[in-house]
Design brief:
single chain; alpha/beta; 15-stranded parallel β-sheet; four-stranded parallel β-sheet; 9 helices; 18% helix; elongated; F-box domain-containing protein
């Protein structure tokens, strides 16, 4: 509602409200439809009751977005199925509309699964009939029951993005032909699939650029793609080895949670960004051997990686970020030999005891920790030094040995006369 300042008889100015005009109804149809495409479909349908002009507007939108947890309130009403059934009816009725003359570019369906395989299958006929470009399907499984994806969707040649969650995908018994020639983005979250299924699927995606795998059932997956540029892999279950052969891959991100896993990236010489989270990389030699082979590597991130010793050698690496948030991070020593390194950052607790850096081109050094590491550094061009010593340690920690370590730590940086900042947050430890 708009506000207007008016002058009263006594000369004082007061704020009074006036009814705002209906500016949305004045918009051209194309603009209104563009705005409506960002709204959940249930809200767009409700707007059809506002006026005659809006009555059929929802049948012209290019995006259909159904999500029961967002659209309904039944989660706050235990044992009440009425709202849930209303949602099912809404989706069914909406998809009965032929949407004649309307191109549906995106179809999103996120729904809890209650045993209705046939209902899900009926709903998924719609994107097949309309030839959608983006398909986002997520069905929350009940216990271990996963809904099976219709194989017909794997031959939808118009698809450019396919995101699946909570589904079961098996296309190798009997073999199913996959034909997704336009697919650029493929994401699996909480999906049950298998090594051979993944191989067959990738064979049918010749233009794939972005792949995200968060799957159960994989053991020794192989990702082979000449077009792939970005890969995110979540280790779930008993994955033993991940082999990637993607000559144009620029970014690889790995999340590990369930033990050691050998990662083979020898077929990915163009990688620029490498990130490992909760990985057991430091207990095996493959990581130490991998990094020098990546001649285009520019950024390396190690987040809560398990091990004792890490050696990083690379001629082109420009940025290293090591973070320890307390998850089994036993890294005691880091040796870094990177002549073109520009930025180094360590953000952690108290495990890293020794850091050796040979990086003549290093410009920025940041160290944030509760403890003090022994640092040896060759960085003749260092411009910015940022040291943050955090509190949270017991008082007995701050003995003569600790202060001597602090003196040695700071003396190593004494030769760098450019910008330096040392910040202490130890007050809470002495309280």
């Amino acid at each position: 509602m708009d506000m207007k300042r008016v002058k009263e008889n006594d000369g004082t100015k007061q704020w009074k409200s006036i009814m705002s005009t209906d500016r949305i109804s004045e918009l051209p149809d194309a603009v209104a439809l563009h705005i409506l495409s960002f709204l959940p479909t249930i809200f767009v349908v409700r707007m059809s009751m506002v006026s005659k002009r809006w009555r059929h507007m929802w049948t012209l939108i290019h995006v259909l977005d159904f999500y029961d947890r967002r659209d309904l309130e039944y989660l706050r009403k235990p044992n009440n199925n009425r709202d849930r059934n209303k949602f099912f009816k809404l989706v069914t009725n909406c998809l009965k509309n032929p949407f004649q003359g309307t191109t549906i570019t995106k179809f999103k369906l996120h729904v809890d699964f209650y045993g209705g395989h046939n209902r899900i299958d009926r709903w998924l006929r719609f994107p097949l009939q309309k030839g959608v470009k983006e398909l986002d399907i997520s069905v929350s499984p009940t216990t271990s029951i996963y809904s099976t994806l219709s194989h017909d969707l794997l031959c939808l040649t118009t698809l450019t993005a396919l995101k699946l969650g909570g589904l079961h995908l098996k296309i190798d018994s009997p073999p199913i032909i996959v034909s997704l020639p336009s697919l650029l983005v493929l994401e699996f979250v909480n999906v049950v699939t298998y090594d051979q299924t993944l191989n067959n699927l990738l064979l049918g995606c010749p233009c794939l650029e972005k792949l995200k795998l968060n799957c159960f059932g994989l053991q020794q997956p192989q990702v082979v793609s000449s077009s792939l540029k970005s890969l995110e892999f979540f280790q779930l279950g008993a994955v033993q080895t991940v082999k990637v052969a993607a000559k144009n891959l620029h970014s690889f991100v790995y999340y590990g949670y369930s033990g050691s896993c050998n990662i083979n990236l020898t077929g990915c010489a163009l990688i620029r960004n490498l990130k490992f989270t909760k990985a057991w990389l430091l207990t095996d030699h493959w990581f130490e051997q991998l990094v020098p082979q990546l001649s285009h590597l520019e950024s390396l991130t190690l987040h809560d990686c398990y091990g004792v010793y890490v050696k990083i050698t690379n001629q082109q690496l420009k940025e290293i970020y090591i973070k320890d948030s307390g998850w089994r991070f036993d890294l005691l020593e880091a040796i870094i030999n990177t002549p073109n390194l520009v930025s180094f950052c360590y953000n952690g607790g108290s495990s890293l005891h020794k850091i050796s850096i040979n990086a003549p081109g290093l410009a920025s050094f940041r160290y944030a920790s509760k403890s003090i590491s022994l640092i040896s550094m060759n960085a003749t061009n260092l411009l910015n030094v940022d040291i943050v010593l955090r509190g949270g340690l017991e008082k007995k920690t701050f003995d003569n040995k600790w202060y001597n370590s602090l003196i040695v730590f700071l003396s190593e940086l004494n030769g760098y006369h450019n910008s330096k900042r040392v910040k202490s947050d130890l007050s809470s430890s002495f309280a």
